[in-house]
Amino acid sequence: MTEIFNIERFATHDGPGIRTAVFFKGCGMHCPWCANPESWGIRPVLMHDAQKCSGCGQCAAVCPVHAIQVSEQWTEDPNLCTACHRCEESCLNDAISFAGESMTTEEIMQEVLKDLDYYQRSGGGLTVSGGEAFLQKDGLIELLELAHQNGLHTAVETAGFCSHEAFSETMPLIDLFLFDMKHADAEVLRTVTGADMKIINANLEILAQNCPERVIIRIPVIPGFNREHDIVLRILDKVKSYGFTRADLLPYHTLAKVKWNRMQREYPYGEDQPLQQEDLKQMMEYGIGIGLDVRIGG
Ligand code: SF4
Ligand code: SF4
Question: Which of 81, 122, 223, 269 could be cross-linked to 17 through a Cys-Cys bond (beta carbons 3.0 to 4.6 Å apart)?
């Protein structure tokens, strides 16, 4: 079984053509701008929509472990919750949902194959995203093998913070790596995201030596993290030094805020405005100047 939290059909920003993106749960990083914070843990996560909630208290009444309190404001203790779904079933306002479920590889592939015609016509296929998909290596390998047996192009989105064994073992099954590089300074990366850059660099090295032509580097440009002090330019230099040729700059956006709120977490980047294409133009020009194929948004 593989733990996933979303299957998105008709995805057009996660590799070539029309694709289905399958989102695996589990991640070793905790980026404070994360667009998918519900992916971090392997267990299902309760999402509460305060806009729909009337405060009736029915969910708290049915919860066997008293994880929900509704007295002054609606709260849930994720440490107590066993994901029994009783609260979700009892809510007449549809204010509770869960992110995360166990699926077999065959069940996932059944969903993916629904759009086979579109993949064939557009040059699309399957993209596995997350979370960090390599953390569920066995499920990932099974899914990619089955995808290839069905003639699908495969892409994996990764930040490379996973074991070298998982990376090397899975590499032959991946037609395209969409590899996030977030910072050029190991200490800043560790402090802000929890990731060890040595591990990430070793995985980049594996790709550089074996299949640089199958790699697109993605750089999320985040205010207060890497937008300033020429950090992105240093990352582009690193991309060049590894021998990769394409880098996509992804402008910071605030779409994740709703999800953070539904998980009852304060969104750390709540005050920052989304970046526009124009904000990234100089970075793109620098990358093109050193010989890379740099695009904004991918
Ligand atoms: S049952 Fe639904 S509407 Fe009632 S308090 Fe719980 S989440 Fe809110
Ligand atoms: S899923 Fe079950 S344990 Fe978790 S909050 Fe809802 S009723 Fe309580």
Answer: 122
The residue nearest atom 4 of ligand 2, judged by CA position, is: 81
- Structurally, the chain folds into a number of domains equal to 2
Annotate 141-155 with DSSP letters as a single string. Answer: HHHHHHHHHTT-EEE
Residue with CA closest to ligand 1 atom 8: 53
Answer yes or no: do 17 and 127 share one domain. yes
Specify the residue with its C-alpha closest to ligand 2, atom 3: 81
Ligand 2 pocket, mutate which of 62, 70, 84, 264 (most atoms under 8 A from CB)? 84
Are 88 and 32 part of one and the same domain? no
pTM of the model: 0.92
Torsion, Cα 159 164 167 172, to 10 degrees, reads 140
User: Mind listing the pLDDT tens digit for each residue in 228-245?
Assistant: 889 999 999 999 999 999
Q: Is the CB of residue 48 below 6 angstroms from any atom belonging to ligand 2?
A: no
Both 70 and 212 in a single domain?
Answer: no
> Six-digit token pair at 91?
């809510």
CA pair distance 232, 225, nearest whole angstrom: 10
pLDDT digits (tens, 9 = 90+) for 25-75: 999 999 999 999 999 999 999 999 999 999 999 999 999 999 999 988 999
